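Input sequence (210 aa), recorded before submission:
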Amino acid sequence: MKHRFITVEGNIGAGKTTLTHLLSKQLDARLILEEFADNPFLSKFYENPQQYAFPLELFFMAERYKQLKEMLQTKDMFQNVTVSDYLFTKCLLFAKVNLPEEEFRLYQKLFDIMNQQLLFPDVLIYLHAPVAKLQNNIKKRNRSYEQNIKDEYLFNIQETYTSYIKQHNIKTIFIDASNADFLGNEKHLQVVLDALEKDYEQGQHYFTLP
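Predicted structure, token format:
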């Protein structure tokens, strides 16, 4: 395996965690999953975004930092590859969408201090799906606090992700996940596994699923 630290990213409902689980099994890799359910502000945020956005994002950032710092600094003798279902920069991207300008500037200062202490993945797998597909996935998994997410919010998150990836010329396996079924279609998973066998220049490298 050419890549030792692989991160899967994408919008809400894109299938990040499903793909990360499957990759960890196929690659015999150490698994890092975001513990989003532990955030006490999550359901409150969806009910009242203006009041709870800042504590929501602070809590997420602190928990992600702690998890990545501990796991990536602890070497596992038996697993040479690590797969994560989130990029630490996710903190900044969601904060940019959710926070007013003054709060975002403060948040960014804290983010910059933490971010320089963490490893960046060797390669990013980005799952790109249209908003209608995301909403369908969100309804299927049936988390009560997610059921009223607006299309506009998902679109803003999507635009923020893709803009960041392109502006920073990140080494990205960019997957069109419009019809993705990684659990039910082995060919879809194989596209990703084959892509991971290659080395890449910086920038985006686009793949479609059969």
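Checked by second reader. Residues 87 and 145 are 23 Å apart (CA to CA).
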